[in-house]
Design a protein that fits this description.
The protein is α+β, with helices and mostly antiparallel strands. The chain has a single domain, classed as Immunoglobulin-like (Sandwich). The chain has 1 helix and 9 strands. It has a 5-stranded mixed sheet, with no helix packed on it. Strands 2-1-4-7 form a 4-stranded mixed sheet, with no helix packed on it. The N terminus is likely disordered.
Length: about 110
């Protein structure tokens, strides 16, 4: 029965590990202002990156990584965009229409 208890104890740990979100960036676009701008963040190859976007205008997020990613931003709150980066290096996250660099990810192996 001790081994069954041990197995039951290890089960809750798996969901908590799986629920770790990786890197989460909050992006706000309001009245022509973008936040953050030119922020630097660290990430690891294969790490899940989540962008949580609140916007009052349409735009397009470009992720200059390998592979590249593009996300259409609408005028809405609570938008979630997720991606991973497969190659180490510096990755720019840019808003196409506003011409702003939101962040630079320094992605390590």
């Amino acid at each position: 029965m001790d081994s069954a208890s041990s197995a039951a104890t290890s089960t809750p740990q798996s969901p908590s590990e799986a629920s770790e979100p990786g890197l989460v960036l909050d992006v706000a676009i309001e009245a022509g202002t973008v936040s953050p701008v030119n922020e630097r963040f660290d990430a690891v190859v294969g790490e899940l990156v989540t962008l949580r976007v609140d916007s009052d205008a349409e735009d397009e997020l470009h992720i200059h990584s390998v592979p590249e990613h593009s996300f259409d931003v609408t005028a809405a709150s609570g938008q979630i965009f997720e991606f991973t980066v497969d190659v180490p290096g510096t990755v720019a996250i840019e808003l196409h229409h506003s011409g702003k660099t939101v962040a630079n990810l320094v992605v390590r192996p």
